[in-house]
Amino acid sequence: MHTPTVDSPPHRPSTDRSVRAVAAFAAPTVLLLVLVAISWSPLMSLDGSIANTTHGWAVDEPGVTHAFRILTDWVWDPVTMRLLVAAVAIWLVWRHREWWLALWLAITCAAGTALQQALKAAVGRERPAWPDPVDSAHYAAYPSGHAMTATIVLGLLVWLLHLYGAGRVVVRTAVAVTVVSVVGVGLTRIWLGVHWASDVLGGWLLGGLTIALAVLAYERWGAPRRT
Predict the structure, then answer these.
(1) What is the secondary structure of 116-143 as a DSSP string?
(2) Across residues 134-159, what is the average pLDDT?
(3) Is the backbone peptide bond immediately before 143 cis, with ω within 30 degrees of 0?
(4) Which partner from 57, 111, 117, 135 sits 20 to 30 angstroms from 218, CA to CA?
(5) What is the DSSP letter of 7?
(6) Band of residue 75 on the pLDDT scale cut at 50, 70, 90
């Protein structure tokens, strides 16, 4: 019996799990988008309450705020994430000659960015405004680009590790780093007062939906068939 190794992806997987993942992410993603678009009062009130509380903490704890700015501007910044994608795409081509997989990865991340910017323009949600801001950001608020980009990039990299048969310890470590990073970047955006909590939740949901759709597309049209 042939055992898949990290040198080549396994046979074409079933799409059932990916279809369920798409359905699971699609419903809450659309619901939250609608609630934000219509400025549903209970959600706006909750966002405001969370924002006021966390902004007070950010002003009172300048050391923590400075650390969060470093993390959000350098470690978890979308530019850093895109450079990571570029490095992985180059590795896929150089090490495995996986041109299609590298292209799929790049297209997925680019599509995520395009969707993010389109929704920002369409929803046009204002960011929180403070008399004593601790940070600033550009463009509209919904969804959080930092949260969405980190979710897509790190989620896809974990999936690629699984695809190439990485060891259990490696995969579990990658999952832990991904969870800390995705949750962490969302919390830093709220703490720094540049996003509402629902912006971050929207970024996470849209990121998850983008991954599910991309993996479904790969499984249907890009994965190698069993020989």
Answers:
(1) HHHHHHHH-PPPP--SS-S----S--SS
(2) 97
(3) yes
(4) 117
(5) T
(6) very high
